[in-house]
Specification:
The structure holds 2 protein chains of 2 kinds. Chain A is of the alpha+beta class. Chain A has 2 domains: 2-125, Rossmann fold; 134-390, TolB, C-terminal domain (Neuraminidase). Chain A is globular and about 85 Å long. Chain A has helices spanning 2-32, 51-63, 109-125, and strands at 42-47, 66-68, 76-81, 86-92, 98-104, 134-141, 144-151, 158-159, 167-172, 178-183, 190-195, 201-205, 211-216, 222-227, 234-239, 246-247, 255-260, 266-271, 278-283, 290-291, 300-305, 311-317, 323-329, 336-340, 342-346, 352-359, 362-369, 374-377, 385-390. The N and C termini of chain A lie far apart (60 Å). Chain A has 3 helices and 29 strands. The longest helix of chain A is centred in the N-terminal third of the chain and has 31 residues, at 2-32. In chain B, helix 3 (153-173) links the parallel strand 3 and strand 4. Classes of the chains: A alpha+beta, B alpha+beta. At the A-B interface, helix 1, strand 5, helix 3, strand 8 and strand 11 of A face helix 1, helix 3 and strand 4 of B.
Chain lengths: 392, 218
């Protein structure tokens, strides 16, 4: 008699588990529409985690549109444990639906925690998180700089150069572990491509004058850059090895910081063509420069086009050393001032941005969640760091 | 008979589930959710604490091909001056020359904020530089363009270059061949004076002339 009860209970439990698991997926789909407005931070409660795992989860979720509240006010309850193996569970408060049940047993505690954070974000919002992504930036080193690659939160930072040379404008090749940057290693500002995995480097542009602002098209096929070899810093487009460069702009004044539209058709950049810096676009195959309207906001530089194509984030300078990040629709128009800072780079999710702030005589890196305007500093890296770029 | 069968089925299922959970390889997933193992993606997901491993071994300067014109697709294409009068001569035209930073140090030219135009008050210094170059026809010139710190880095790098090129153009109008003059911008990275005030800033917005002398042939 006892054996029968145990057996039946076991089977019933198993069936229940599978059903709940399936319901979990359904539950996630129902809740996505409720939190469709990204400017509303999603209230969640979290308990059961400790140490580094807890810290990583709070950081990752805190910068990707979540805020932490008590379980009574939470839309989702995140529970789990990292006492033994890492386990995470998410329940939607209103429906009691289990939207996530997962355990992890390979990788370091940080790697697992970042993975869990992304799983939580995907389960609740249906969007891919950026907790497991990489950034690159330059750091002051002696009289020059070195290029650094790190996790997006600043951990596991590694210098990939040992040149003690001036560095500018690091930029990732999309989807690849190759960085482009300008280095004065050879006595001239030259653009290099640098395979981060092997350390192999190649010269991409070494003309007299300036070679900078390397930006690879999202399809990985072409390279936009600024070169002054024709007498003034202009935007050029070449193949990704720097071959067959074509001059796109032919102004007397200087252009800078080109970036690509996600459909690879258009390049946005800054120019002093009309006296003060402003944003322009040009067709990547050549044509006329078109002024990008940034209503009421002048001195616009360093644009970056969001991967979803909808917006351009840029830096405006309001006198002195006061810089602000601004958002404008990709077609131009009304500008939203976001926060103090400069030199922004989008993450692949089109909502998180990494940028530079000047503070206490040095430069630091910070993260901005554009819809909620939440800002967090990138921790765990020391020294003066700037010109970050997000791998996407 | 049936209850015994249920027991066997139940126990078998229980053992099966327990067996899954005890799998030593890879993450364990509770059924119902799609899975991806953390740390197994050899791409950007894998991180190695302490900086070893696949990401970013420090670059050995010996790695990578030695730089020369034509390497990696970056040829210094000699440009027909008739077609492109402002074009810069290739780097190889200036290599191997000796730098003399003090010869023309007195003639550093200063610029107004956010401007690359050479002021009338600064023209006298440019004329002196032109005189030196005319007197030494085998000498060449490197012009270093600089900015104050008020501007973003990418913008200042381009502005510094525009200043150096403006001086080069002014020298050309004074009769100095364009192919004798090379430019380098340092943006805001090489201030002459530290400080966060106009006194410092005004001294940093500058173009510096570095005389290039041919290496003496022995």
């Amino acid at each position: 008699m006892n054996g029968l009860r145990i057996g039946v209970r076991f089977v019933a439990w198993l069936i229940g588990l599978v059903t709940v698991g399936a319901m979990g997926a359904e539950g996630a789909r129902i809740t996505i529409s409720k939190w469709a407005d990204p400017s509303k931070s999603i209230p969640v409660s979290m308990s059961g985690f400790s140490g580094e795992v807890d810290t990583v989860l709070r950081y990752d979720l805190g910068i990707q549109g979540f805020n932490f509240v008590g379980s009574a006010e939470a839309a989702y309850q995140i529970t789990g444990s990292n006492a033994g193996q890492l386990e995470g569970h998410v329940v939607e408060s209103a429906t009691k639906a289990r939207v996530l049940d997962r355990a992890y047993s390979s990788g370091t505690a940080r790697v697992q925690a970042h993975a869990l954070a992304d799983d939580i974000i995907l389960a609740i919002t249906g969007q891919k998180g950026i907790s497991q992504t990489k950034i690159a930036f330059k750091t002051e080193s002696g009289a020059g700089n070195e290029v650094v690659v790190a996790d997006y939160d600043g951990y596991n930072a590694v210098k990939i150069t040992q040149d003690n040379a001036l560095i500018f404008a690091p930029a990732w090749a999309p989807g690849r572990r190759t960085l482009y940057y300008t280095s004065y290693r050879l006595g001239n500002p030259d653009i290099f491509s640098h395979d981060v995995t092997t350390g192999a480097r190649q010269v991409v542009a070494r003309y007299t004058g300036l070679n900078t602002g390397a930006a690879i098209s999202p399809d990985g096929q072409r390279l936009a850059m600024v070169m002054s070899k024709a007498g003034s810093p202009d935007v050029y487009v070449a193949d990704v090895r720097g071959g067959s460069p074509v001059q796109l702009t032919k102004t007397r004044e200087d252009e800078s910081s080109p970036c690509w539209s996600p459909d690879n058709q258009t390049i946005c950049f800054a120019s002093r063509k009309d006296g003060r810096p402003a944003l322009y676009t040009i067709t990547a195959s050549g044509g006329a420069m078109k002024r990008l309207a940034t209503a009421g906001v002048g001195n616009a530089t360093e644009p970056d086009w969001s991967p979803d194509g909808k917006s351009i984030i840029f830096t405006t300078q309001r006198g002195g050393s006061s810089f602000e990040l601004c958002l404008v629709p990709a077609a131009g128009g009304e500008v939203k001032v976001l926060t103090s800072g400069e030199d922004p780079s989008w993450a692949a999710n089109s909502r998180t941005v990494i940028f530079t702030r000047r503070t206490n005589g040095k430069r630091v890196l910070s993260l901005l969640d554009v819809p909620t305007k939440q800002v967090k500093d990138v921790k765990h890296i020391s020294g003066s760091c700037s010109q970050p770029c997000w791998a996407r | 008979m049936p209850f015994f069968l249920s027991l066997v089925v139940g126990l078998t299922l229980a053992l099966g589930v327990a067996g899954c959970k005890k799998s030593p390889k890879g993450p364990t997933y509770i059924p119902g959710a799609p899975t991806k193992a953390p740390g197994t993606d050899p791409g950007f997901g894998a991180t190695t604490p302490g900086g070893g491993g696949g990401i970013g071994r420090p670059v050995d300067p010996g790695i990578g091909r030695p730089i020369s014109p034509g390497d990696g697709g970056a040829t210094s294409v000699p440009l027909n001056p008739g077609l492109d009068p402002m074009a810069l001569a290739g780097i190889e035209e200036f290599e191997g020359m000796l730098k003399d930073p003090s010869a023309l140090a007195a003639y550093t030219v200063y610029f107004d904020f956010d401007k690359a135009s050479v002021k009338a008050s600064e023209m006298g210094k440019v004329e002196e530089v032109a005189k030196v170059l005319k007197a030494n026809s085998s000498d060449k010139l490197l012009i270093e363009g600089n900015c104050d710190e008020r501007g973003t880095e990418g913008y200042n790098l381009a502005l510094g270059e525009r200043r150096a090129l403006g001086l080069r153009e002014t020298l050309a109008n004074m009769g100095i061949g364009l192919d004798r003059v090379r430019t380098i911008s340092y943006g805001e990275a090489r201030p002459a004076v530290q400080g966060n005030n106009e006194e410092a800033w005004s001294k940093n917005r500058r173009g510096q002339f570095i005389l290039l002398k041919p290496k003496p042939t022995k």
